[in-house]
Specification:
Rossmann fold, 8-stranded mixed sheet, globular, 5-stranded antiparallel sheet, single chain, 723 residues, mainly beta
Length: 723
């Protein structure tokens, strides 16, 4: 449940009122895009490493094209296809190139299911013949080319199918799929949400075998939500949702041999109540890698399965006192040695293991975190990664030899740098931002980091902002409970240190998250400028439990979510209240999702410190949240009842003294409305007055139409009235 899930495309503001020669941000114009930062379109490198492709849409003509550009010059070279030349479809929404780039899957009529899943009508385009073939008349999920692009595998109604492109023959791989009972080839709700993947099948290197997961969710409890819509009677959405301590899907692994049209179950070993968060074929077409994780998520086996006899062997084991993060970083080299990332030395680093799972060497090392693994170039024998070597609020891009030598910093500017590499690691596009610099994009040589060309910046945005005299986002640290915590502060642009100002604190605070970074205004920051113009100081502090400062700092909250994080926010607020220019009687706090859980606890446990709190889509008791996320940090309620209950706002409702606003979406399939309803009942029974708002049918993001404008108007008015 990460912060990025909640605040996608939130607030980008403008104004029309003039005060003292400066324009002032207004909520009414918050959605007109005046301060929208320009971003690069999503691009995909071609195998030659010199060119990339971009999906372009002509909305007036309702056509789509896949256009080829030169990395070095940025010039458009040609189009792979344009839907204007196709009689069967007018446009398409997405595409996927085959491995040899001679065929393209085109997606149309996409329909969202959950956060990451969708179904749609797909077509196969032959680049050489310029012909289009419809994959299926049905809306299917996760269609994927075989390595030689002769076939496509996909899922329809919880069953796996393969489609032979040359013959047009469809083969049904599984037959037992059934809604809310058995799922083949795609993940269930909780795997999709918390392990962040949907496609649960994989082709081997030669296309002779498929590996796939089967989920038996027949014993998983159902959750239902009333969706009110526009009809006379509401509809009901019913889906399987395992809450903490309840029954998960029973997951099993199968291999399917296409020639024999036969599936075989893989007996992984003596496991009980476990997860399979990743499957991936190795460079050997007969060897499948499987990650098996215990329910507590602190004991992980990497298993190799021989497809000839389905024999399984554990090649590596990793344990942790708290939990192990699941990533997509596992990379197999040609000899089946592999690259792996781990926190086992207390910081997230890169390791190399041989084909038998024996450690060859630790590639990166130090009191800093590898924050992104970009890949391995077999020609130069270099690994490319992003890290916090220059401070936890900054990111830089590096290369390093696989033997751990010749490390090279490829980015120069301080701030947040990230990279998108060409397929052959000749170039990378660097995106950079800092508190003073909106996103800028440049092309660099991956060998030495030298600038090749500038691509795009946001200088026009800076020119627009000049008329508004925005206050800077000031990065610093604050010492709280024996730790130097990262923070930022936005003050009124006419700040006077001799005055007293009310303070609004924002935080998220979830395990491994980060809300304080050396990055430019985004999402809520323009709203904070509006509040600053109204005479508020806005602050964010990343307390214990947040990320990128080592495993010990992140995992100190284990089994006690909402304890140390809340203590840090209360202690920080007290420190701010002692400052000459902060009014200690007017300190508020707000947050969304995990942040709503935090702000609720803060105004209850810190009722002598916080006079106001806003909680949007809050988790009110971890007993109500899903197994995978919750038990990773809390184990089960049966094992850890005090950890669940002592830090649940429900059990502290009688402590409410200040002004409290609860907000939730009625169609939230992630953090259910049940949380807010139970909190409302607890407050009513404690005879505590509060404010609350429900947005009908809106999901965890609470958006659509005028919803966001209404939501932020509501919160702004509440802050101005109560704080």
């Amino acid at each position: 449940m990460k912060f990025s899930k909640i605040l996608v495309g939130l607030l980008i503001a403008a104004t029309s009122t003039i005060y003292a020669q400066n324009k002032e941000v207004s909520l009414e114009e918050i959605y007109d895009g005046t301060f929208r930062q320009e971003r690069l379109q999503s691009l995909q490198s071609l195998d030659n490493g010199k060119e990339y492709v971009v999906l372009n849409r002509d909305r007036n003509a309702n056509t789509s094209s896949i256009d080829v550009f030169s990395y070095k010059s940025g010039d458009k070279l040609r189009s792979l296809l344009n839907s204007a030349d196709l009689s069967e479809i007018s446009g398409f929404q997405g595409f996927e190139l085959s491995e040899n780039e001679d065929k393209i899957l085109l997606s149309t009529n996409l329909e969202q299911i959950y956060r990451r899943s969708s179904r749609g009508i797909y077509y196969i385009y032959d680049v050489e013949d310029k012909t289009l073939t419809k994959l299926s008349d049905n809306k299917v999920q996760e269609p994927t080319f075989s390595p030689d692009a002769s076939k496509v595998a996909y899922v329809f109604e919880n069953n796996i199918y393969t489609y032979d492109i040359a013959s047009g023959e469809e083969t049904q791989v599984t037959t037992d799929g059934e809604k809310n009972k058995l799922i083949n080839g795609v993940t269930d709700w909780v795997y999709e949400e918390e392990f962040a993947f949907v496609r649960a099948f994989d082709w081997n290197k030669t296309g002779t075998h498929l590996a796939y997961l089967k989920f038996d969710e027949s014993e998983v409890p159902e959750f239902s939500m009333d969706m009110f819509g526009q009809d006379l009677y509401p509809s009901q959405q019913v889906f399987k949702y395992p809450k903490a301590g309840e029954t998960n899907s029973e997951v099993s692994l199968y291999t399917y041999e296409l020639a024999a049209e036969e599936s075989k179950k893989v007996e992984l070993g003596d496991y009980n109540d476990f997860y399979i968060p990743r499957i991936k074929w190795t460079q050997d077409p007969e060897i499948l890698s499987v990650q098996v994780l215990n329910r507590h998520q602190n004991d992980l086996d990497l298993i190799f399965v021989d497809a000839e006899d389905n024999e399984a062997e554990v090649v590596m084991n990793e344990t942790d006192e708290a939990y192990i993060d699941i990533t997509n970083n596992l990379t197999f080299l040609e000899d089946n040695s592999f690259i792996w990332t781990s926190e086992k030395d207390g910081w997230n680093h890169i390791y190399l293991y041989d084909e038998d799972g024996e450690l060859e060497n630790q590639i990166t090392e130090g009191n800093w975190e590898v924050t992104n693994y970009y890949g391995y170039d077999k020609d130069s024998k270099k690994i490319f990664y992003q890290s916090t070597e220059n401070g936890s609020v900054n990111r830089d891009v590096y290369s390093i030899k696989i033997n751990g030598k010749n490390k090279n910093r490829l980015t120069e500017k301080e701030g947040m740098n990230s990279a998108d590499f060409s397929a052959d690691y000749t170039y990378f596009i660097n995106s950079h931002t800092s508190t003073e610099t909106p996103y800028e994009f440049t092309l660099h040589n991956a060998k030495n980091g030298k600038l090749v060309r500038k691509i795009k910046d946001n200088s026009a945005l800076l020119e627009k902002e000049a008329a508004y005299n925005f206050a800077p986002k000031e990065l610093s640290t604050i010492e709280v409970n024996g730790n130097e915590l990262n923070m930022w502060m936005i003050k009124p642009n006419d700040f006077d240190e001799n005055k007293k100002y009310p303070l609004l604190m924002f935080q998220y605070s979830g395990p491994g998250s980060q809300s304080v970074s050396n990055s430019y205004f985004g999402t809520n920051d323009y709203w904070y400028q509006l509040l600053a113009n109204e005479g508020y100081i806005v602050v964010t502090v990343d307390g214990r439990g947040t990320g990128f400062k080592g495993a010990a700092f992140k995992k100190v909250t284990q089994n006690e979510l909402g304890k140390y994080e809340v203590e840090d926010q209360i202690a920080a607020a007290k420190k701010f209240g002692a400052m000459d220019y902060i009014d200690e009687d007017r300190i508020g706090i707000w947050g969304w999702s995990y942040g709503g859980f935090m702000s609720s606890n803060a105004i209850l446990k810190g009722n002598d410190t916080f006079s106001m709190a806003i909680a949007v889509a809050p988790v009110i008791s971890w007993r109500f949240y899903d197994t995978i996320y919750t038990e990773r940090y809390m184990t089960t309620p049966q094992e850890n009842p005090s950890g669940y209950d002592e830090n649940s706002p429900i059990n502290h409702a009688e402590k409410l003294k200040g002004d409290y606003l609860l907000i939730h979406g009625g169609g939230d399939d992630n953090v259910h409305l049940q949380n807010t309803m139970r909190m409302v009942e607890a407050l009513v029974q404690a005879n505590k007055q509060f404010d609350w708002a429900i947005y009908p049918d809106r999901n965890h993001g609470i958006y659509g139409g005028n919803t966001r404008l209404h939501l932020y108007t509501l919160m702004t008015d509440f802050i101005k009235e109560k704080l």
